[in-house]
Amino acid sequence: MSILMKRRSVLLGSGALMLGACSKVHDSTAGQSLFGVVDDWHKGLQRSLTARNALAPEFAPEDISPFFRGNGSTDPQNDGYPQHVAEGFANWRFTVGGLVERPLSFTLNQIMRLPQRTQITRHDCVEGWSAIGQWTGPQLSTFLDLAKVKEAANYIVFRCADDYTQGRYYESIDMVDALHPQTIIAHRLNGEPLPVRNGAPLRARVERQLGYKHAKYLTGVEAVASLDDIGLGKGGYWEDHGGYQWYAGM
Amino acid sequence: MRHLVSTRLWHWINLIAIVILFMSGLNISNAHPYLYWGNWGFSPDQAWLAVPRFPGWMTIPDFYSLAKARDWHLLMALPFAFGLLFIWIAMLWNGHFRRDLVTRKHEWRWRAIKSDIVQHLRFDFRHEGGKYNFLQKLAYGGVFGVLLPGMILTGLAISPGMEATLWWLVDILGGRQSARSIHFLFAWAIFGFFILHVALVLLTGPIGQLRAMTLGGDYEPANPPFARPRHDKGDAA
Q1: Is the dihedral of CA B101, B104, B108, B112 positive or negative?
Q2: How crowded is the C-beta side of B16, counted as CA atoms within 13 Å?
Q3: First and final CA of chain A: distance in angstroms?
Q4: How far from A242 is each of A28, A234, B66, CA to CA, in Å?
Q5: Taking a C-beta distance cutoff of 8 angstroms, is the pair A237, A214 a contact?
Q6: I need a labelling partner for A121 at 20 to 30 A (CA). Which of A66, A92, B129, B177 fits?
Q7: What residues form DSSP beta bridges with A224?
Q8: Is residue A249 in some structural domain?
Q9: Residue A168 near residue A236 (C-beta atoms within 8 A)
Q10: How far is CA A132 from CA A25, A37, A59, B36, B123, in A?
Q11: Domains, chain B, ranges and CATH?
């Protein structure tokens, strides 16, 4: 009995020690850089096993889920967003800036006259759920070609209209994903104008990564050489404020 | 009987990996505790299982943090996956697989299986001849052949970055949400094995077992004091 009790308290004690150690390791500088390196390794492994332009699976119309759940911001109230909703986004502008030869600004009508891509894909939230929807919009590469993105650009930053508790939402992807054929600036979901809960009037689709990379309420994209000076430097709102992984392919 | 150095090294690395993977996985489950079949699913009314919320003492970290749990999960996925690749190559290379884990035809006879079960129920763990008896081979086969590789395959299948390449795997598994459900079920099956495994180590002379798995050297599993071995067969008592 007493030996069993001792053994149990040793087990519990070492378990608690390990959990405590886990928290300490996680929050240390070395721990933080280790987890950053691990994210890079997963990206490296996935990229080495996947062709640069390999497509995420596309589905048939009958596979579309009956509803497309909205997550995160689903009805922004900050600045002029409600006004834009009231106006049917007639005065919305989408800018292409940063490291480009020709900074550009588009109205929604101009965006709809560009070549379009329609794809039925599955959206995977980091929380675990999935929904399937049909998205329509120009490829991001079309905008980058029109603006003549410079060689020095390594990342594309998505600029958004919605505020969270700790600031404006933003996200970023590297040029491999930016130039991927399925990376589009979507303005339609299932053939209808994008609903507010899903990011009206424009949202990014980055089909080989998790949902938080698919920035909503887009006001523009910015080509940059480094993410260090954007936000807190980790490449996205949730990366900066929630500790989420920048590469979200797993 | 003795454990090879490759077995001992992998055993302890893998233990650390699966404990952290399991506990961080329970934290990840708390983010959306509903499981679905097929490719999509996002609300409780579509779920085949509403998973209970796992308390802090079962999770890593010991409070709800999807981001930190994912950090640990993604970190330990690497030694787990490459470790399994290593031990499979080692087992095939050094003969451990063929010698100790492959079942023989005569072991599949019902009489033999029944006698093995009866022997286990009598807490008689002495082995005759081979390193492992039939039930052990079956358990290890299920773990090495199905559960451990199954965790890696279902883990890859729920990764959107791999799906452009592994779409066929996601199809075979029945869709991404099915793969996620199987990932969860297999994790608990491995937990079940873990409990059985530890219980049997505790019953058969834990000090000797731990020494053999750490330092190597010869060992024989001992019977617990309340074992009731049958004396009509095997070595005379």
Answers
A1: negative
A2: 14
A3: 46
A4: 16, 11, 9
A5: no
A6: A92
A7: A155
A8: no
A9: no
A10: 38, 32, 8, 14, 53
A11: 5-215 (1.20.950.20)
Over the stretch A172-203, which tens digit does the pLDDT of each residue have?
999 999 999 999 999 999 999 999 999 999 99
* Residue at A22 is within a domain: yes
HSE on the CB side for A77, CA within 13 Å? 1
Test B160 with A243 for CB contact under 8 angstroms.
no
- In this predicted complex, what is the ipTM? 0.90
| A210 touches B: beta carbon within 8 Å | yes
Residue to substitute from B35, B42, B53, B85, interface A, most A β-carbons within 10 A: B42
> pTM of the prediction?
0.92
Domain range for A229 is 3-241
A134, β-bridge pairs:
A120
- Give the whole-angstrom CA distance, residue A202 versus residue B178: 31
Domain count, chain A: 1
Which residue of B70, B158, B176 is in closest CB contact with A245? Answer: B70
DSSP-derived 3-state class of residue A239: helix
Residue A175 maps to which CATH number? 3.90.420.10
